[in-house]
Structure formats: C-alpha cells, structure tokens
Amino acid sequence: MLRTVLSAFTVPEIRRKLLFTAFVLFLYRLGAHIPVPGANAKAIEDLQSQLGGGGVLQLLNTFSGGSLSRIALFALGIMPYITASIILQLLTVVVPSLEKLQKEGEVGQAKITQYTRFLAVGLAFAQSIGYVFLFRSLSPQTGEELIPNFTFLPVLIIVTSLTAGCILVMWMGELITQRGIGNGISLMIFASIVSGLPHGVSTWWNSPDQVFKVVMPFLALGVIAAIVFIQEGQRRIPIQYAKRVVGKRMMSGGQTYLPLRVNMAGVIPVIFAASLLAFPATIGQLINKPWSRDLSEFFNAGGAPYLIFEALLIILFTYFYTAVTFNPVDQADNLRKYGGFIPGIRPGRETAEFLDRILARLTFPGALYLAAVAALPTILINQTNTQIFFGGTSLLIVIGVALDTMKQLEAQLMMRNYEGYLGQ
Asked: What is the extent of the structural domain holding 230?
C-alpha cells in the first residue's frame, strides 16, 4: 500500500488530485472547529463529556469529527446527505417514476442526484432545529446555557448556519469526487473518524488495566484482519456470453463472472439500527418525563436489550437493503438481453431463482458478521470498563473507505502505465 502511494506521487496528474483532496479535507477539518454564532463557548467545553456515552449522539459526533460537541459550523457533517441518498434509494423500489429515472442512465441519475440534494437541504434544516432544542435540553447538565439568547432571531441564525455548513460540506464532497481521488462523501466521514485517533490512542495508553493495554493491539489487528477478509470475500458466479451479431459485425462470446459480495449492504444496516435504537433515548432526553426516562433507560446503549435489538435490526436491515440494491430478476433480464447465461442454468426465471438462492446464503453470514462487529466494542467496554474510541461502525467505515480509495488509486496508476506502454 505504501509503495502504491509513493508511486502515485511520481505521476503529476495523480499528485495534483491527491493534493487537491488533502486540501479540501483540511478545509473540512478547519470548519469543524469554527463555532456557530450565538453559542456559549465555555458551556460547549462542558458539553464534550455529555456526548461520550454512546448512542446516536456519540455516533453522529464521531461522524462529524467532534463538530457536534463543539456546536461547530459543520456540526451536521455529511449525514443529512447520506440519509437523503438512502431514502431516495429506497423510494426507487416503491415509486415507479423514480425507478424509471434510475434506468435512464446518466440523465436519470443526474435528476435523482438533484432530488437527493434538495431532500438533504430539507433534512439538514429540520435536523438543525432538533439540535438547537437538544442543546437547550443539555444546558442543565453543563451548568450554563449553551444558547444564552434563546429567541427567534438567534435561533434562526444558528439553524441557518448549520444548514449552510451542511450544504458546503456536501459541495466539498462532490468536488473531491470530481477532481480528487476516491469518493468525497466517504472520505469526509473517514477524515472525521480518523481525526479522533490520537485521543483514542491516548485513552488506551493511559488505561489503568494493564491486561487491556497488552491485549488491545492484538485484538484490534485481529478485528481489522477479519473485517478486510470478509469485506473482500465474494462468490463469483461464472457467466458465459454467446456469439451475437451487432450491426454487420460478429461479436465473439467470452467468459466472465458476476461477483456477489458476502457483505453487499455495507455499513448501512448498522447505521439504520443505531439510529432507530437511539430514537427512544433522544426522545427521553428531550421530553424528560418519568415514562420517557424509563424507556430511555431500557434502551440504554450497552445493556442487554440494546445489544439484542441491535443484532436483530442489523440482520433484518441487511436482508432488506440487499434486496433493494440487488434485484435477481433484473440481473437475469440483463444477462438474457446481452446474450449471457450461467452454465447449467436456463436463462430467465431459473437464473433469477438461482441468483436469489445464492444471495440468501451469502446474506445470512454477512448479517451475522455486521451484528458481531457492531456489538463487539460494546461488549468489550462492559467487560473492561474502558472506553474504546473506535466502535464497530467506525471500523467498518474506515477500513471500507481505505480499501476502496486504494483500489481507485491503483486503477489510476494502471491506466497511466497502459498509456505509457501505448506511447512507446
């Protein structure tokens, strides 16, 4: 991997893309430390400890690189855009007009992207209002008002600032995708999570549990190796293409394969499950009634009910999201349209049923893997009474983004090498 990065800096075009990506990420991290106007700076310092107890607030604070606990300009991070993307992706299954747009190629995808941006702005505005009232409810715990002047105009300025910050982050992410290396949205989450690595290493090094200090590095390496192994795991379905006539030319057949990943849903099911389970705790914090506090305590992050429900929801969402992103019937129709078939399987309905069976067998171990990775850090925290900075979701994102970015970098280098050979 290090050799690939060093080789990339020897190619001027790739070097410019890498430097541009680094510059945009630097600006993103700079905005994560600029507080919004109207917030109490001293009370914000006391808020840091309030968002470290797990749940969706800790998850969102990690994804924003600590911006949420600082009430910074980029406190929303990129999560409204990701939520909007997931919603649009799910709606394409139930809304015929969106499904038609999805099949229209680049033109339809551009329209769906535009809808996603509009929805992201609306979600960012609504989420900003929710955060303002959440910060107000946290004021008694910090001893001072986080928003001293809680009137219409100051609140509107804060909400507008947070929404504008989210739009700016969304634009910066698209700039990285267009002019840099890798997926800009994913790299921003990657940078946010990795920015807390020094604090995590310091927490581990200063831990009073000597056994934990010795075992933790080996455990982390083992988990990383397991995640890489399963993330890269795939079932390759052989595909045979028959000879066919295109215009006046005879196109020869060939052999290829259809890769089906063990974890086709990625980290989306974990995010869904964490968000749903943290909803009762958030409502309890906002309402602050006896029944809401009891509900919040029942779904306390780290308890047995939380872990059980989290595992069940992750398995359920893994099956659901895999079914949304991979349609065996469409795949079978596309294969038949282009003259492809699976050896030993009849085209059409039998191919779709075959792909569906293979997908069901792959999804179950993939769902168990996601549930195990998500629950393992919580179990370790309960057993060792030591705060672990990287949760299961964070590890999945960091490793997944690193692998995808390195693949894109290698593809860029390979393309330049081929150009060099052709020029000779």
From this structure: 199-388
CA 368, CA 239: separation in Å to the nearest integer? 29
Whether 356 is covered by a domain: the verdict is yes
Residues 19, 11: Cα–Cα separation, whole Å: 12
Q: Is residue 58 part of a domain?
A: yes
Query: Helices (DSSP H) in 299-391: which residue ranges?
Result: 304-325, 328-337, 349-384
d(CA 82, CA 88): 10
Is residue 174's pLDDT more than 60? yes
Tokens 């809401």 found at: 292
| pLDDT average, residue stretch 163-186 | 89
In a domain, 414, yes or no: no
What is the gyration radius of the CA atoms in the chain, in angstroms? 24
Contacts of 113 (CB under 8 A, 6+ apart): none
> In whole angstroms, what is the distance from residue 408 CA to residue 7 CA?
14
Could you say which DSSP state residue 36 is in? Answer: P
Return the percentage of the chain with pLDDT > 90, whole number: 8
- b/e for 161-170, b at 16 or more Cβ within 10 A? bbbbbbbebb
Does residue 122 sit in the same domain as residue 224? no
Q: Which CATH number is 129's domain given?
A: 1.10.3370.10
Are both 182 and 212 inside the same structural domain? no
State how far the Cα of 66 lies from the Cα of 165, in Å rounded to an integer. 15
What would the pLDDT profile of 51-64 be if each residue is shown by its tens digit? 544 455 666 677 77
Residue 178 is assigned to a structural domain of this protein: yes
